[in-house]
Amino acid sequence: MMRKPSPAKCANTLFVAAQHIITLRSLLLGLVLAAGFQGYASGAEPLTPHRPTEISPLTILGFNGPEDMQLTPDGKHIVVSELPLDWAHPQGPSLVLVDLPDDRVHPLSVKMQPESGWGDPACPVPAAFSTHGLFVSQRPDGHVQIIAVNHTGRESIEFIELVNGASGYNAIWRGCVAFDGGSFNDLVAYGSNGLIATVMLDKTLVGGKDPMAFLFSGAKTGYLAEWNPRTGWKHLPGSEAALNNGIQLSADSRFVWFTAWTSRQVLEYDLQAQRITRSVDVSFSPDNLTLRGDGTVIVAGIDDLARWRDCTAEEGHFCQDKLAFSVVTLDPKTFTVKPLFHGKPGLLQGASVALAIDNALYVGTATGDRLLKIPSVVLATPREDVN
Predict the structure, then answer these.
(1) Contact 85, 63 (CB under 8 A)
(2) What is the mean pLDDT of residues 153-158?
């Protein structure tokens, strides 16, 4: 049984762990250094392609924090983000590809080659970067892009071109957009080479409050931010929520759907009316959102946020326990949810994303080394985890 930490230890270790995601440097850098952040440096080796042949077919290894994932436009690969525990000193690739249908894992190397028209021309090439939330889409000129949240060295959005060559996919870093107003979580492409991102912790909203106490208070900690090449960053009014997290965009680009992690909600924001128009409560802390071809939204997240918080405090870094998680479907027309899959404790280190491909469900986590694959899941039909 886990020993309940003291308030002082909880505050200190939660703060250290939160730095793996939250990069409000002006508020937090001195405390991170004082807490000995370097002690959590990763020793990961570069990943090599492999097939999951020696383990359960429901488990795919070869990752370092597969926090988010998206299907490529041709439907033949999954692009997976890499958010290592020590994102300040990432080891290994920034992105990983999973081939379908055999689930072969490939590190996706990224060549640095800036090009005008991708992000802000004033944003410099990064020395290194990790990836948190990501989004894969086709640009107006036909090029396929990955836009990804980066916390390594700066708070920024990285623009990466995905090129399908004779020997498979290659990635080319094309540009970026820096941000100093807080910490991002996820994003979607929007408009003409623009984007909308979730700001999970806003520097202005934090003010003089203790950042960690504020983060888990259930108060509104963030908002939606839009960026486009003509006008730069814009705070979308009326989009404040309790830790803005995962995000998706409706097919007609009018509505943004996003999650509020600590208030256990999925919300709809009308980009024309500039306000939240609908919300639905869920029984877990919803993280990332993905879309199926029919427009159904898939929502995943851990069941017990308080347990994750206390475990993180006890361990001094993000909780590695295999906690229970839930996956539900959201109908955008009725804005109602139905259970799809429930993972009991011991199956995965807490779900952050679920991607439905045909009848299979791929589940990722921000703190683990693997994806979970449930090979046969019927949409909108409750399922218990397979043991």
Answers:
(1) no
(2) 96
As given in the structure block, the two tokens for residue 114 are 């800036």
Asked if 27 and 211 count as a contact pair (C-beta separation under 8 A), the reply is: yes
pLDDT band, residue 378 (cuts 50/70/90): low
Q: In the structure encoding, which two tokens stand for residue 296, read together?
A: 């159904």
What is the Cα–Cα distance from 11 to 190, expressed in whole angstroms? 38
The CA distance from 44 to 152, in Å, is 16
Per DSSP, the residues of 281-305 read: E-SSEEEEEEE-TTSPEEEEEES-H
Long-range CB pairs of 144-149, under 8 A, 24+ apart, other chains included: 144/72, 144/73, 145/118, 145/174, 145/189, 146/70, 146/79, 146/95, 146/171, 147/187, 147/189, 147/195, 148/81, 148/94, 148/95, 148/187, 149/184, 149/185, 149/186, 149/187, 149/197
| Closest C-alpha among 261, 233, 240, 277 to residue 352 | 261
- Per 3-state DSSP, the chain is made up of helix, strand and coil in percentages (nearest 5) of 10, 40, 50
Which phi and psi (to 5°) does residue 8 adopt? -65, -45
Under 8 Å between Cβ of 97 and 362:
no
Domain 7-43+59-374 has CATH 2.120.10.30: yes
- Residue ranges per domain, the chain? 7-43+59-374
Task: Give the residue among 180, 157, 325 at the shortest CA–CA distance from 247.
Answer: 157
Query: Residue 347 burial (CB < 10 Å; 0-12/13-18/19+)?
Result: buried
Q: Is the pLDDT of residue 365 over 70?
A: yes
